Amino acid sequence: MKNVFYVILCLLLLWNTFLTIEIFSNKNNDGQIHQTIIENTINGYTTDITEVVAKCESKVVTINTYSDGVLNKQASGIIYESGNNNVLIVTNEHVIANSEVIKVCFDNGYELEANVVGSDHISDVALLSVQTDFSVTAFTKGDSSILKKGEYVIAIGSPLGKDYAGSISLGVVSANNVVIGIDENNDNMDDYELVLIQTDATMNAGNSGGALINISGELLGLNTLGLDGNNVKNMNFAIPINELNQIVSQLKENGSVQRVYLGVNGVSVSDLEVYQKSYYDINIETSEGYLVKEVDEDSPAFKAGIMSGDIIIRLDGTSINSFNDLRLALYKYDVHDTIHLTYLRNNEQQSVAVVLE
Q1: pLDDT one-digit tens code per residue, 233-244
Q2: Is 208 one of the annotated active-site residues of the chain?
Q3: Which of 13, 132, 179, 257 has the highest CB neighbour number within 10 Å of its CB?
Q4: Rounded to an integer, what distance in angstroms lies between the CA atom of residue 81 and that of residue 339?
């Protein structure tokens, strides 16, 4: 009887030992799983941001302008292109306006005088050139046409001057292709329209001319202005890189930007509601093209016979689906150049030659 009792007791002890080992093992495994999840979530996100900032902050410079030997303005600039010790820097035109001397402060502490290659008051873009005897890395350009609302972006600049050089703020794309009118002659009518990226990334005085980048470190735009007022908070805007590229190309070649005149105003077909398509007799399934709503009298488009209700679909082979498409396509033309517009009228495709002014 005693033997049976001892056998049962041994079995119970073995079973208890087995259960204890299993429970302890599961606790350890649970702990390891939790630890892995926390590290992957927090450290992964943080590392992406910090690595991008570390890679890009040296590509943004501080710009100091002087008049009569006195410091006039402090702002930011973007290293746009570099090679053979010649560095091209993009900033805002209002940063360098009315200045006699422009100096660029690099992240290595060197401050060098810059020359103005060209500037454009309307788009508020200026291109500077600096000769360096040290290596400088320029930004990789992104594609602003594929930006989406809610996409994370980072603003880099020198708010309040070089003491805060390399300051960053994180935000999102609030809207893309925001149109802001420019009244050049103060007649209460817009002479030009800027198409900008809106972001809620915080910006202060001195952020003008700084970079707006994505989480991959690609340059998306040139920070240019912000709305200010009692009821406004974090409504800031940047010139999209796709447009900036066109402007810089003209500044490099001509020192200025020449804008041709077509004379149409409209809306993207993709932005129309069903009832609007019905009103203009547009197929509900159609989503491509730029619907002409107004044609300026005696404009090149008017003289060529373009009418309200026409849908422009191509300009010399370039697909046109928005005002921004149309404007970017026109950048490469000069006054008196002839372009060919392909458009739909009454759902029939037509083409016409237009002499630009």
Answers
A1: 788 999 999 999
A2: yes
A3: 257
A4: 31
Choose, from 82, 120, 123, 124, the residue flagged as catalytic. Answer: 124
Pick the catalytic residue: 58, 94, 107, 200?
94
Q: Count CA atoms within 13 Å of residue 40 on its CB side.
A: 6
340 given a catalytic annotation: no
Q: What HEC string does the chain produce?
A: CHHHHHHHHHHHHHHHHHHHHHHHHHHHHHHHHHHHHHHHHHHHHHHHHHHHHHHHHHHEEEEEEEECCEEEEEEEEEEEEEECCEEEEEECHHHHCCCCEEEEECCCCCEEECEEEEEECCCCEEEEEEECCCCCCCCCECCHHHCCCCCEEEEEECCCCHHHCCEEEEEEEEEEEEEEEECCCCCCCCCEEEEEEEECCCCCCCCCCCEEEECCCCEEEEEEEECCCCCCCCCEEEEEHHHHHHHHHHHHHHCCCCCCCCCEEEEEHHHCCHHHHHHCCCCCCCCCCEEEEEECCCCHHHHHCCCCCCEEEEECCEECCCHHHHHHHHCCCCCCCEEEEEEEECCEEEEEEEECC
pLDDT in tens, 245-265: 999 999 999 999 988 889 998
pLDDT tier for residue 164 given thresholds of 50, 70 and 90: confident
Report CA 332 to chain centroid distance, whole Å.
21
- Tokens at residue 75, please? 């702002």
269 vs 278: CA distance, rounded Å: 12
